[in-house]
């Protein structure tokens, strides 16, 4: 295949229209020549980054030219799979030296925002893993920047493009269960830790650049044994977002998309609180939203994770099914919809026998690649994913203040009834890691 490098101007000319109606599921008509290939780099090479790279490079329209990873072993493993790529430890050097059109940011949560903002401001098209950011402020600023720059963006919520997700949204919109009055959603994962931080300092492995791994976070000693790297950073307040941040963007995506909820009236945590270092294990958060065209006058959303689950009377609504490890139950005025995570929805109760609206899915990664080269539309751009992330992060924030109903002003990005909570809306970046746009 002949590679035709796409300039920022030509990509935006071809693809900007794709943001006009990003949430309508439809066939993506190609408008760019099929020989056009976007040149791509990855911030991250191991873990979820490796999965993202595999999915992105399965498109014939994307060519991987470089990766950056703070772990030299992970970078070397990616080099074995793609011998022609350049390898860096510092993504900033990669951005400065490489010629590319698009980037995926697949790092620990605390390092999503800065490379994504740098890419947007540089005119690149961006695929960023969920949650979009670690703080509400960062999510808002990325959403605004992507809109301003007409960036072709996508968040890594793969089920958003699946048949299952699209069918949930379409079935709610069909009115099959009437107006939705409550939703219960859960994940059995337990990305939390009730233990204190170990009081020790371990040698940094020779393959790991600890300073670059910390990035925007304050300097601190390395703790080995997997405490931070490669995966348990999700449990740590300064680096991850716990189970809610990890799985909420997936499981609450169809809730958010189908109901059209926005600014919650209140958010209250009735589960575990974080300790000084780590997110809580077993969380339960109650949201109350103003009504929309698909809900009653108000709609309640309750999130559970760890060992928390919906109460017995709610679980009884989906009998003979038992409550699975992850999923949602939508309670409407005219019936119930049970939606297991990555499973087709089922209508129950008064809605038994009604039709589930089946909508064919597509490949979330290829969809974005096509949009980035001007041949389609991304359905989870930051215009959608930013507000979804804000909702999830509000839930995370609420766990710091158990049994307190927080009131949120979306326009001002401010908790209006509990000033102490506002310190967690935005974080302070370590000196040298400040980024224009934040």
UniProtKB/TrEMBL annotation:
Signal sequence range: 1-29
Organism domain of life: Bacteria
MF terms in GO: nucleotide binding
Occurrences of domain Gfo/Idh/MocA-like oxidoreductase bacterial type C-terminal (ranges): 198-274
Domain Gfo/Idh/MocA-like oxidoreductase N-terminal residues, every copy: 43-155
Keyword Transcription regulation part of the UniProt annotation: no
Alphabetically ordered keywords of this record: Signal
Record PANTHER family: BCDNA.GH03377 (PTHR43818), NADH-DEPENDENT DEHYDROGENASE-RELATED (PTHR43818:SF10)
Protein name listed in UniProt: Oxidoreductase domain protein
């Amino acid at each position: 295949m002949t590679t035709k490098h796409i300039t920022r101007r030509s990509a935006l000319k071809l693809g900007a229209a794709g943001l006009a109606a990003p949430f309508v599921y439809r066939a993506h008509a190609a408008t760019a020549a099929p020989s056009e290939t976007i040149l791509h780099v990855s911030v991250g090479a191991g873990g979820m980054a490796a999965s993202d790279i595999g999915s992105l490079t399965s498109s014939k329209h994307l060519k991987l030219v470089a990766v950056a990873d703070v772990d030299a072993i992970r970078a070397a493993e990616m080099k074995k799979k793609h011998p022609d790529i350049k390898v860096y430890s510092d993504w900033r050097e990669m951005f400065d030296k490489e010629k590319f059109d698009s980037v995926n940011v697949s790092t620990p949560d605390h390092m999503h925002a800065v490379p994504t903002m740098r890419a947007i401001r540089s005119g690149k098209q961006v695929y960023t893993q969920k949650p979009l950011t670690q703080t509400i402020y960062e999510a808002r600023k990325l959403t605004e920047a992507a809109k301003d720059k007409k960036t072709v963006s996508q968040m890594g919520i793969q089920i958003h493009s699946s048949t299952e997700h699209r069918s949930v949204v379409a079935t709610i919109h069909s009115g099959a269960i009437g107006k939705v009055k409550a939703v219960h959603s859960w994940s059995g994962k337990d990305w939390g830790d009730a233990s204190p931080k170990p009081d020790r300092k371990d040698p940094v492995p020779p393959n790991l650049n600890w300073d670059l791994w910390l990035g925007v976070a304050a300097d601190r000693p390395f703790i080995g044994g997997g405490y931070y790297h490669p995966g348990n950073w999700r449990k740590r307040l300064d680096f991850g977002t716990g189970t809610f941040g990890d799985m909420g963007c997936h499981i609450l995506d169809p809730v958010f998309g189908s109901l059209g909820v926005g600014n919650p009236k209140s958010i209250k945590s009735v589960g575990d609180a974080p300790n000084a270092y780590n997110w809580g294990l077993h969380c339960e958060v109650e949201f109350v939203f103003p009504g929309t065209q698909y809900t009653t006058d108000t709609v309640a959303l309750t999130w559970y994770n760890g060992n928390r689950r919906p109460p017995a009377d709610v679980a009884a609504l989906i009998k003979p099914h038992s409550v699975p490890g992850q999923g949602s139950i939508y309670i409407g005025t005219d019936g119930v919809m049970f939606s297991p995570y990555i499973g087709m929805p089922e209508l129950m109760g008064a809605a038994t026998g009604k039709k589930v609206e089946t909508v064919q899915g597509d490949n979330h990664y290829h969809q974005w690649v096509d949009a980035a080269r001007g041949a389609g539309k991304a359905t989870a751009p930051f215009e959608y994913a930013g507000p979804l992330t804000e909702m999830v992060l509000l839930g995370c924030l609420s766990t710091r203040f158990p049994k307190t109903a927080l009131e949120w002003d979306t326009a001002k990005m401010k908790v209006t009834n509990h000033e102490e909570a506002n310190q967690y809306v935005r974080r302070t970046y370590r000196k040298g890691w400040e980024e224009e746009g934040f």
